[in-house]
Structures are given as C-alpha cells and as structure tokens.
C-alpha cells in the first residue's frame, strides 16, 4: 500500500462527500461534542482496510484516535467489534460513510478471494486479479486481493505487456506482435500472449513469449494443450471461470488463474457503525 497515494485518494473522497461542510452534523453538534465510533461486522468474512480507518479520521481532525482490533486479512465473525474511533461528533460522522464504503468493499473482495484460494488448496495454482477494477480504487482493490491470500496481475497498462486479439490482428500474427513488443520493451518487461487455439499456443511458444494465457478455454482443452508448453514458461487461465468451476480449472496444472469477478462484481461485507455521544468532562 502506497501511503502517500492513499492519503491523496482519501482527501479527494472526503472532499466529494463534504463539499463546503456537513450541514447535518453542524446543525446538531457543537465543536466540543465528543463521542466514540464503533465498527461492527454483521456477517462472517475477511477484514481489509485498517489503514483507511486510521487515516480518514486523522485527516479530518488530528485529535481523533483510532483503535483497530484486527489486521488486514484476519477472518472476522458476525457481531465482532473491529474498531473504535474517538473524537468530536462532527469528525466521526463526517468520516463515517467514506470509511464504511471503502472497508466494506475491500473486505468483500478479501472475503471472495479467500473463498477462491480455499477452493484451489493443494493444487499449487495461484489466484490473481485482473484490471477489471473500479476506476480510482485499483490500488485499494488490488491490495484487498493480497489481503485475501491472492496475487496481483499487472497493475495497469504500464508494467507488463499483454498481447490480446486486437494487438495480434493488427500486427498480423502472434509472432509479429511478440517481436514488436520485444523490440520496444526492455529486458525486464514480461510479455504475455492470450491464446484460444492449439495453433495459437504453438506460435506463442515458438515466438518466445514469457507467459501463455489460456483465454476462454475449457479445462479439457487446457489439459490437452498444456504438455506443449515448455517447462519454466508461466501459464495462466482466464475467462469464463466462476466459483463453481474453479476447482476444475485448478486441476488442469495451470500456474495461475485470473478472476475478474473478484473485483468487478463482488458483494461488499456488511459492516455497521454505531456512534455514541459522550458528555464533555470539565
């Protein structure tokens, strides 16, 4: 997690919600009114978002204090207290929705990843994400994948080459696309090629690609074609893989399985906030 980027992101999220001020809290509470903010989990899952809780309220008021009782990646149970934040009532309520929106989504992703990881236990395959993330939230969503026990695919278009059908079609062939990529990129950049046929697989292997992605291939096809991949070449399966058929894909012998649903259609973990007002001590 890049804490500098995190702070900048959270500042923008707070600006979006606060605008010129919190009319509700400023109408009801004086600046001196103090309280405590309790975060409770309402269903079993995996928690993620400790840094969000600790950072949001400090951004609003340096005097606010956060006690987070769990670590990212910890399994949590229904009814469990995960954090207590103390400070002015205005501060607590101004940060409440931003915190909940983010940690619920991050925890939902971590929970989904943990289920996927458990389904492939013993197979040696690694579960990873895709670029199908929410714009503006990629860093947090991919962090949540790691908290759940998964691995990150490329972070964006800038850190790895993935040659898809459009690249290959324009270049004229897989071999031509790979050669162009090799000429353009440095030796530290890996080149991945999506294949959908046995002929495409053979061409990608012969072209010297670093990673072969079996795209929208059935488990039967992958098992049949995998022996054509040289030892040491990374293999990945993606497309059409769900929680229901995940075990079948894991049994093929492929090295990685990338799952778009981990981030693009995840259900947020239900977490609630309860705020209690405290009388100011004289």
TrEMBL record:
Annotated metabolic or biological route of this protein: Cofactor biosynthesis; NAD(+) biosynthesis; nicotinate D-ribonucleotide from quinolinate: step 1/1
InterPro entries membership: Aldolase_TIM (IPR013785), NadC (IPR004393), NadC/ModD (IPR027277), Nicotinate_pribotase-like_C (IPR036068), Quinolinate_PRibosylTase_N_sf (IPR037128), Quinolinate_PRibosylTrfase_C (IPR002638), Quinolinate_PRibosylTrfase_N (IPR022412)
UniProt keyword annotation of Transferase present: yes
One of the GO biological process terms: NAD+ biosynthetic process
EC number: 2.4.2.19
Keyword annotations of the record: Glycosyltransferase, Pyridine nucleotide biosynthesis, Transferase
Gene Ontology CC, one term: cytoplasm
Subunit: Hexamer formed by 3 homodimers.
Protein name: Probable nicotinate-nucleotide pyrophosphorylase [carboxylating]
